[in-house]
Each structure stands twice: as C-alpha cells, then as structure tokens.
Amino acid sequence: MNSQNSSGSNENGWVIVKRGNKRAFNPTRSRKESSNNSNRNSKSAQRRITRRKLLEKFFEEDDVPDELYMAGQVAVEKKKEPKKEPQLLGEKEKEKVQKALVDFFREGYIQNVLGGGNASDKTILDYINSILVKYDIKISGGFILKNMGMFEGNTGSSSIDIDIYLPPNPESHPMRKKKRTMEIHKALQDLFNVDKVNGKPKYKYFKVSGTFSSKKQAFFQKNGIYSVTKYSRGENAEMDLVQADITTTPIRIIQRFDLTFCQNWYDGENLWSMDKEAVYKRAPGRLEDSYVPIYLDGNPVTRKRIAKYMKRGFRVHYKDPKTGEMVEITEENVKNKTNA
Fold first, then answer.
1. pLDDT band at residue 157, thresholds of 50, 70 and 90?
2. Among 14, 27, 49, 59, which lies 20 to 30 A Cα-Cα from 103?
3. pTM, full prediction
4. Does residue 326 fall inside a structural domain?
5. Cα end-to-end span (Å), the chain
6. Same domain for 131 and 256?
7. How many domains does the chain have?
8. 299 phi/psi in degrees, rounded to 5
C-alpha cells in the first residue's frame, strides 16, 4: 500500500502526490498564488530599502563609537576565545579613571540620586561601582585611555563622551526583559543627568533587526550588538549605551576592537586590558588580523583610525598575511596610502 502512488490536483493549483495515507505537495503553485508571493516579496523588499534609508539618515558615521564602526568593516567569524587573558592595569591608572567617572557623573548623582546637597567623591564612586557590578556593565572606548593620561598632543575634540556596554537581556520573560532594560537605562540616565524634552529623556535609539547592506549599520550585527542608545547632556557630553545581543557579551565585543590598545574596560572593581604593554606604549599595539586585509586594500576608515592613534603617541604593527612577520606601520604609510 505504501509503495503505491497516485496523483491529482486541488482547487488551489497544487499538484498532490498520494503516498499511502500521506500527502506530499509538489511546489508547483497556481499563477494566482505565485503572483501573491511576488507582491509580498516586493513589498518586503521595499520596506527594507525604506527602512535602510531612514536609518542612514538617522545615524551618521560620527554617531557611533569608532571601535564599533570599524567592527562593521569586516566579517566577524566564529572563532575560539582569544588566547591572551585580560591583564590588570595599574592602581594609579585605575584611580585616574575612577576620578574621571566621579567628575563625569557628579552632577547627575547629586541632583537625581541624592536629591541635592553635597557628596564625597568616595560616596559617588561607590554608587557608580554598585551600578556597574549589579548589572554587569563595562565602560570602554576612548574615555579609558584619555583619562589614564595616554593621549599625547591635541586630541582634536573638546567633547566628553563615554561608551557603556550592557549585557544581553534575559529571554525567559518579555516583561522581565523590559523591566530590566528600563532599570539600567533609568539608573544611567539619572547618573548622566541627561537632557530632557517635555520632561522626558532626549535620546537616539537604534535596534538591530533584519539584514542591512549599509556599511553604517553593518557593525551592529557583525559585532553582536542588539541596540545602541545615545544620550546627550549640554553641547559636548554624550553617553552611548551599547547592548550586546544574546550571542555575545560586553567583554567579547570589546575584545573584537580593531586595535589591541583600545581593548580596555572598567567593570566597577578593576581596570582591564588585552594589551597592557601597548597601552603603556612599551610595545606597538597590534591591528587585529581580521582587519589587515582592509588596511592593505587602503580602507580609509581603518587608515584614519590608525593615523589618529599614532598622533596620540601609539605605535601600530600588523602580521603580514604572506610572510607571517610583524610589520610596523609608519606615518608615511598612512599618509601616502602605501603599505608598510
């Protein structure tokens, strides 16, 4: 019985093949069905294009942390955990970063947390650290190196910004996920003393969904970013909250930055680095292997970032993909778009 087949067609244009008591459908549809699918696909494609244009208008290159933008220039492959372990940076440098955090968040703490009056630096720092530890938050980006005193010369910007990396949301319950996100954002909004419009925090928000071809958006998915929320305070201060998706963690995102001396973070207790020697400028920093091909191809964003950090006193080298030797990049290489 099972070996006998018979066929027929139904009113929708499917070709029905009977195998025993089961029915198998051949993917041959009626013209009407194909037309409906074509229209749906067309509308879906149009929505993606419209959404991408809106996002490109909404987010400019300067609206995202440099490290994350660079992460979007290359495909992040699934690979083993980095062989190098994070290293503790010195107590002196940690204290400098902690002082900068107290100064950065002092106004918001006194106004929104304390409700007025005065507070000691220790009290403010203890509160900041409690928030970082409670929610497993990491602070990274140029804020760390700059306040450690590692930038030489003119940094070229009077702005003060901080990049804060949040862990992924728990998936167990939608309302719990929403509540937790609101708790984190509210705590950091108060600390930052964010600008408000009609009593509500002023911000830009981008949530990753779907697949986008725009280079300005690519870094989100390729680097495991779920969302980015940008808050501002006054004319020069910004706070970016970068939330990891469920495939990664804040530390893994930081470990994917293009230049090893940028792979640093403060977690509320300690100051960590993936390349301690390069941070202290006792050795060149390394351009991660996955970024070397686009550097050699003359990618302008890569070269601009390297030039920026070289002006700040850092040295950069990379592993030659052909010889396997380490090659140091010079100012002439970057300026004249030649390869070292």
1. low
2. 59
3. 0.74
4. no
5. 73
6. yes
7. 2
8. -55, 120
